[in-house]
Amino acid sequence: MPVEIPKDKWPGKIRAVTLGAIAAEGGTRVKTVTVGGQASLPFMHFETLMPNKPVIAIEVKDRKPDDWSKLLEEAWGDALNDPGAWAKAAEVAGADIIMLALSVTGADGKPTTPEVAVAAVKAILGATGLPVIVNGPGQVDLDNELLVPVSEATKGERIVLGVCEDKNYRTIVATAMANGHLVTARAPMDVNLSKQLNILISDMGMPADRIIMDPTTGALGYGIEYGFSVMERLRLAALQGDAMTQQPMIVTPGFEAWKTKESKVGEGVPASWGDWKERAINWETLTAITLVESGADILVLRHPESVKRVKAAIEELVTV
Amino acid sequence: MALTGIQIYKLLPQTNCKECGFPTCLAFAMKLAAKQAELTACPYVTDNSKKQLEESSAPPIRLVTLKAAGGEVKAGNETVLFRHEKTFYNRPGIFVQVKASEGADAIKAKVSAADAYSVNYVGIDLAVDGYAVIADGGDFGAAVQAVRAVSKRPLILSGKSAADLDPVLAILAGEKPMIHGADATNWDAMADLAKKAGASLALVGDNLEALADLTEKIKGKGVEEIALDFKAPGMSQHLALSTQVRRLALKNFRALGFPIISFADGDNGRDAVFAAHAIAKYSGFIVLPRFAPELLYPLLVLRQNIYTDPQKPIQVQPGIYEINHPTAESPVLVTTNFSITYFSVANEVEGSGQPAWLVVCDAEGMSVLTAWAAGKFDAERIAKSIKEFDVASKVSKRRVVLPGHVAVLSGELEAELPDWEIKVGPREAVDIPSFMKQAL
Fold first, then answer.
1. In this structure, which of A302, B8, B84, B213 has its CB flanked by the most CB atoms within 10 Å?
2. Residues paired with B97 in a beta bridge
3. Beta strand B93-99 with B283-288: parallel, antiparallel or unpaired?
4. Average pLDDT of chain B?
């Protein structure tokens, strides 16, 4: 029986965004990473080939985190105490990108200083040739206080500064524009809010191929279906030609999964949850896979074993 | 796909006789399209039209049911490509595989453990749906008997030839199992077997044209309940075929309008990854190669999540909940009525061993941050809940703990509740026990 395969032909496509700059482009990266550029829904190779595959960023911190799971501490060992060593270990573990998430405070409890932030970024840039994302601690004043000097100290590297949110984006966008960097734009699980923030950032004069959007996601069991559907809707809007939803998407399954009890702790939980380590890895990996299927371009992960599994899955999914 | 009102109108008598109770045939057609009227209300519709309308109203993906004394698994009847368009209806059945070559004792041990497995997620008990028994050279009859000795749940019987499967069907008399493994070489005998046993039949192949030919032939033999197994070499091809079949089915291509059955396999967690992919993208039956709680739990949760109706987030009743027998001295904690939020918080408070009052505000079923962003969880609503549930009469110390994510509300809440102390708790539920010990 003849079967006519239904193929979608979309008027729009996702913007290609390149992270990092090599020496010839004014940076020091050994290689750059380009995401986006798709003209079809994820992995629909029978319609159009995917020009760039989803990539993995590994999250590192400027100092050993106080509240990370023991499983993560075991996985990274001494590297946790040194952002450069941590970044190097992340590269060995298979990262395409290093994401530095700056801490709110130092080990002494005092707010992280610009000097510490710049030193951590420099250490990472020195230790690895991969593109870098730098996120502030997530507090408006502190974000601006740290990200501006980081931005200035790394002029031309095409790092990604984050996170722009509707209540705080101007300072970050301005410094990214002045120093040749990119930004991430995060809106709380809502198609229109994502689009609106992209517009606000573009209106400041930031070229659209320097914006990556974070649609915000929940972990498996903690609202992943909201992120999943918002991402599917954003991707459909983008392909239908809605220009301000055509940014590549970055998601943070590592952060989301490792704050859940299922991943974080091994004691005082039901026996039906099974082996802690394997469950924790599954939690992070399955959160990531579900989001890859709904259109994620950059996945920020924490555990090296999850990185291995998600990378293997992406390789399978991009095989034509 | 269902017909539109205009398409239905063309099949009606167009006499506007009003005997159906609607003023015009067009009005009646619109009601039919919206499923708010029954075709039987029209006394004059022709048999030919009736047939067309009935065919078009049949679900685009055939409902396939497996049944046994210990339960029922349904897949199919789906109507959309993306869950946000409406919802996904029938959660895929999750089966654990056993091979005849494993031997009866090993099978019994494995199935007993899997059958006893139950895990609670947001107040719902989740479990394995059934087992797939593979005829791989060992004593197949003994294998099926071993499973039936310890479990009453529905079975999938998988083998290469009808002759292997036939003898064991007597063991499953009165059940509706699925027979797996029909292909171009054996479909005839497999279809006869399925017909005889009252079973559904899974068809294997990765060529859609060949599969469509075979489903027509199998239907011709009187077997209506069919499932498709693509046996795809990798996830990329599996995703492409699953998507193509779903799209074709929704376009009313009946020859492929069947649920998909997928076997997860591979080492180093690849089985978990593949099963997750199958849940997200259209499989109706998923067979796992092994039983392990740390594999089942995340998959069962993912299945709940993806198949939640997007229009109806799971909510709990707003109110004041007592945890660990609180007294007038116990602290008051506030959260929203999104079920995942409620259960995360309630479980932690319970686990802390400390008594507390948990005030669940009506935030329209949203989590703390989402509700706050949407204006459904603000100082006014929290204050209203505190008053409505008469919290003041239950406690001696007027102190309320806010979720850390909405610390910004503490000022406004002080204004709304002037005689209460407002305290900011942790952002994540997992940190509640240590917070309660140290700060309360």
1. A302
2. B132
3. parallel
4. 93
Cis bond leading into A163, ω under 30°? yes
Phi-psi category of residue B268: left, alpha or beta, with phi > 0 → left and psi -120 to 50 → alpha: left
B77's CB contacts (< 8 A; 6+ apart) are: B59, B61, B63, B89, B90
B244 touching chain A per CB within 8 A: yes
Put simply, whether A279 touches B (Cβ < 8 Å) is yes
Asked if B379 and B386 count as a contact pair (C-beta separation under 8 A), the reply is no
- What B417-426 contacts at long range (C-beta under 8 Å, 24+ apart), as own/partner pairs, is B417/B383, B417/B386, B420/B386, B421/B397, B423/B399, B425/B333, B425/B401
Distance (Å) from the C-alpha of residue A32 to the closest C-alpha of chain B?
Answer: 26
Contacts of B310 in chain A (CB under 8 A): 225, 229
| Partner-chain contact B82 A223, CB within 8 Å | no
Contact between A1 and B373 using a beta-carbon 8 Å cutoff: no
Whether B247 and chain A come into contact, CB under 8 Å, resolves to yes
Tokens of B246: 């779903």
Residue matched to tokens 């990108």: A97
Strand order across the beta sheet in which B399-402 lies: B319-323, B356-361, B332-336, B399-402, B421-424
Q: Is A320 part of the contact surface with chain B (CB cutoff 8 Å)?
A: yes
The answer to whether the Cβ–Cβ distance between B118 and A272 falls below 8 Å is yes
Pair A307, A98: CB distance under 8 Å: no
Give the pLDDT of residue B340. 81
Q: Is B253 part of the contact surface with chain A (CB cutoff 8 Å)?
A: yes
The answer, for A285 touching chain B at a CB cutoff of 8 Å, is yes
Q: Which residue has the tokens 């396999």?
A: B265
ipTM: 0.97
Task: Please give the average per-residue pLDDT across A114-127, as a whole number.
Answer: 98
How close, in Å, is residue A177 to chain B by CA atoms? Answer: 28
Spatial neighbors of A266 by CB under 8 A, at least 6 apart, are A70, A71, A276, A277
